[in-house]
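Retro notes, structure queue

What went well: the backlog is down to a handful. What didn't: a couple of records were mislabeled last round, so from now on we paste the full input next to the output in the thread. Example, using Transposon Ty3-I Gag-Pol polyprotein from Araneus ventricosus:
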Amino acid sequence: MLSRKKDVSYRLFGDYSQLNCRSIPDRYPILRVQDMKFLRGLDFVSLCLEDILNASKGIEEHEQHLKLALEKLDTIDFRINISKYGFAFQEIEFLGYQIVAQRFRPLPQGVQAVSNYKRQENIQDLRTFIGILLFYRRYLKDVIAI
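Corresponding output:
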């Protein structure tokens, strides 16, 4: 079956539950960072699942780093969708943090979510709250009081 995406292209989808029951899962379905040998030597590149973060001191260096990273990806026939990428940002949100001028700050909405979190009604709510709290604890004043 086909469904229309927001960009007017189509996405193919189907019910693969019967196939999934019979298939043998991969041992490591997601490429592990230690397996990514093709990016060795590019210390300015950080990877996390689908995201590649290129940290540079200036625009010239950023362009040089970007060229090197894209060349490495091209050597393994790795293709990217340029329309989904952004380049030369002064500020970026990445993995729950706001990165500005080589400083990491938590996202304000994340810290606010901990401060304004409603009373936990059940064990799942409590686990969710503890997870959020552990993630943002170093940025919260008097975290023990919470």
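Agreed that this is the format going forward. Reviewer comment attached to the example: DSSP finds four helices and seven strands in the chain.
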